[in-house]
Amino acid sequence: MTKKRLSDSAEQIFIDQALLPDWDPAGAVGYDVDANPGEEGFVAIGESLEDVGETYPSLTVQRTNETAPGGTGYNFITAEGPGQDRSGQLLVTARAEADDDGYTGDASQHDPVDAEDLVDELINEVEDVCLENATPMDTEFNSLGSYRGADAPNDYDATPTVFLEQCVVLYSWSRLP
What architecture is the 10-175 domain classified under in CATH? Predict the structure, then answer.
């Protein structure tokens, strides 16, 4: 019996199947999650906090939880076995270091913005990607949604200051027998 599982971590699926294909640099001051390091519009993206602070701006996608309802952990039973409708949350954090020159991913199209505005624009684009994939046809998820989380504390102890903004991405998928 073959069990349906996600092909990778929920974080990586969100990055590979939603963020990368549906990101619009115009909605993020020209920054592009698909750009290569060294290119003007490069924004680092990953699921690990290991390299946070090596480059700015950056996006980090982390899973916070995943649940399956019901007292047994299963939603339904078929002739092939039990199934689950799982739902989970990812925490997406944008970081940018204060810079007197400001940030723009495409100087020919966008005026520089300060780090605080940039992290807000990056998270706005993450939320736009979720809207594009509310009932995704091209991802392994059944649904994607988002909302702004609690105010992420800026790191005023760092020199220069690092500004943060976050959103919670809600996802669901079905584990079938």
Answer: 2-Layer Sandwich (3.30)
- pLDDT tens digit sequence for 144-168: 999 998 889 999 999 999 999 999 9
The pairing of strands 162-175 and 143-148 is antiparallel
Q: In this predicted model, what pLDDT tens digit does every residue of 71-124 receive, in sequence order?
A: 778 888 888 888 888 999 999 999 999 999 999 999 999 999 999 999 999 999
Cα separation, 149 vs 165, in Å, equals 9
Domain ranges of the chain: 10-175
Residue 47, token pair as written in the block: 């699921």
Given a contact cutoff of 8 angstroms between Cβ atoms, the answer to whether 107 and 39 are in contact is: no
CA 97 vs. chain centroid, Å, equals 19
Per-residue DSSP letter, 10: H
